[in-house]
């Protein structure tokens, strides 16, 4: 039987003196490059910075996630969401919150927003194209796992087309991962675009198709301090 279910999401704001900044985007968007540039810039300006990324590569959960997306371990896609959630809980409690309590700036390459964009794709892979109501329900079900997580003080969404992302990925000397195809990146980007519209107060869109220097300057210009 089919039931319509709706509920509100209230995010947990950062209660600590530190600042939590995340960078998001599809693979090949340049978010990792920009996260490192931002961390280096803040360090040079005398800030206490902790650079980190999600998913982690630490055992037992983080390394399992990487083995799955690299095709080394075969598990149902839906299981990834639970693994991501567990890995983020560990990361939050052992890295993010301790640093924020100490007044440091966290620069995170991805946070829980990724789970929505990539989770929408995984749902589509299992059941076909989603309509708007399905998309909302999938997003809510994923976000419900994270509503007690601290939401970043600011999230920069580095927005690029899937075509540009693929061109950039093709130039990287690394093994191609599960999500790195044109069609998958197109659908993930649609998920990020939806998030940026729905959560415009939390997510700041940055044009990632400009030069590396221009993108970095735009991020610095929009910093919350």
DSSP helix count? Answer: 8
H-E order: EHEHHEHHEHHEH
The major beta sheet can be summarized as: 5 strands, parallel
End-to-end Cα distance:
51 Å
Shape: globular
Low-confidence stretches: none
Total domains, how many? 1
Mean pLDDT: 88
Number of strands: 5
Radius of gyration: 17 Å
CATH topology description:
Rossmann fold
Strand content: 5-15%
Within CATH, the superfamily carries the name P-loop containing nucleotide triphosphate hydrolases
| Helix content percent band | 40-55%
- The second-level CATH architecture is 3-Layer(aba) Sandwich
Top-tier CATH class? Alpha Beta
Strand order of the largest sheet: 2-3-1-4-5
What would you note in describing this structure?
The chain is built from eight helices and five strands. Helix 2 packs across helix 3 (77-101). The protein has one domain (19-221): Rossmann fold. The chain has helices spanning 31-44, 62-69, 77-101, 113-127, 132-143, 162-170, 182-198, 212-221; strands at residues 19-24, 49-53, 105-109, 154-159, 203-207. The longest helix is centred in the middle third of the chain and has 25 residues, at 77-101. The protein is 49% helix and 12% strand.
In terms of topology, how is this protein built?
Blueprint: E1 19-24, H1 31-44, E2 49-53, H2 62-69, H3 77-101, E3 105-109, H4 113-127, H5 132-143, E4 154-159, H6 162-170, H7 182-198, E5 203-207, H8 212-221
Parallel strand pairs: 1-3, 1-4, 2-3, 4-5
Helix pairs in contact: 1-8, 2-3, 3-4, 4-5, 4-7, 6-7
């Amino acid at each position: 039987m089919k039931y319509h279910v709706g509920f509100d999401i209230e995010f947990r704001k950062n209660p600590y003196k530190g600042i939590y900044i995340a960078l998001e985007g599809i693979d090949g968007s340049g978010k990792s490059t920009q996260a490192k540039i931002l961390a280096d810039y803040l360090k040079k300006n005398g800030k206490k910075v902790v650079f980190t990324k999600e998913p982690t590569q630490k055992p037992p959960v983080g390394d399992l996630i990487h083995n799955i997306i690299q095709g080394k371990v075969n598990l149902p896609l839906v299981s990834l969401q639970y693994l991501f959630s567990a890995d983020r809980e560990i990361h939050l409690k052992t890295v993010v919150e301790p640093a924020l309590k100490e007044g440091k700036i966290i620069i995170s390459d991805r946070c829980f927003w990724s789970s929505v964009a990539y989770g929408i794709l995984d749902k589509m892979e299992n059941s076909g194209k989603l309509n708007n109501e399905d998309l909302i329900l999938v997003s809510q079900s994923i976000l419900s796992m994270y509503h007690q997580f601290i939401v970043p003080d600011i999230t920069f969404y580095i927005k690029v087309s899937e075509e540009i992302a693929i061109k950039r990925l093709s130039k990287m000397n690394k093994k191609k991962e599960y999500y790195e195809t044109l069609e998958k990146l197109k659908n993930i980007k649609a998920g990020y675009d939806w998030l940026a519209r729905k959560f415009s107060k939390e997510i700041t869109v940055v044009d990632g198709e400009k030069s590396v220097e221009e993108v970095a300057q735009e991020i610095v210009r929009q910093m919350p301090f």
